[in-house]
Write the structure tokens for this entry.
Amino acid sequence: MTSAGVGSDEATAAPHVLDNPARASLTGPHAHFAERHGRVLRYPLDVSPWLALPDEPDADAWADVAALAGPGAEVPLAGYSGEVPDGWEVTFRVEGVQFVDDGLATAPDPEAVRLGPADVPEMLDLVARTQPGPFLPRTIELGTYLGIRREGALIAMAGERLHPPGWTEISAVCTDPAFRGEGLATRLILAVAHGIRERGETPFLHTSARNANAIRLYESLGFRLRRHTAFLAARVPEHLPEDRAAVPVP
């Protein structure tokens, strides 16, 4: 999928790992998380909702999705903007944008602390109140998460999600509404990006194409729009063949 607004050299280039970042993650640095059926991969459902299709899914790939997810399941399809097969119901679609580091002034933050499993209940509560996107009980296992506390309470956080080779996605950027306007999100984005850069990798992130405030912030920090994408979910038909079962990647 090629986006409007990118250069013609990129429009004619071979597929990039960021074109299908969930698949690149699950066949690369996050392979130890991968569950699969045929050519379709996904994260465990308590880690991340993302399921990864082949670059050009055919009927067999959709059958693999159905077998892996199960009848009637709602399946998030990261980065897929094509058509779903007959009998499938699109339940969610939001146009998105993907940004990549193009000169971030990264820096550690003296107030940021690394969050761990004991912090997950507070993280889930903050996510529920701010809605930055999917964050589940084991999402913290995907990478480093940093937070800022005031009087002991977690008031802001950001961390790492998808991990294609050479790249790491910044995600779950959120701030308690009572503390917005203090630049906490900016500080945490730059701190998380600093850790990514320290590993020799490049930060990237996604947001809704309609989130003008976030887009302005990311561009002001030094992110560049790489491509337009989509956040899509579809419901598997209720009636499926019974001769397939999900198996973990060896």
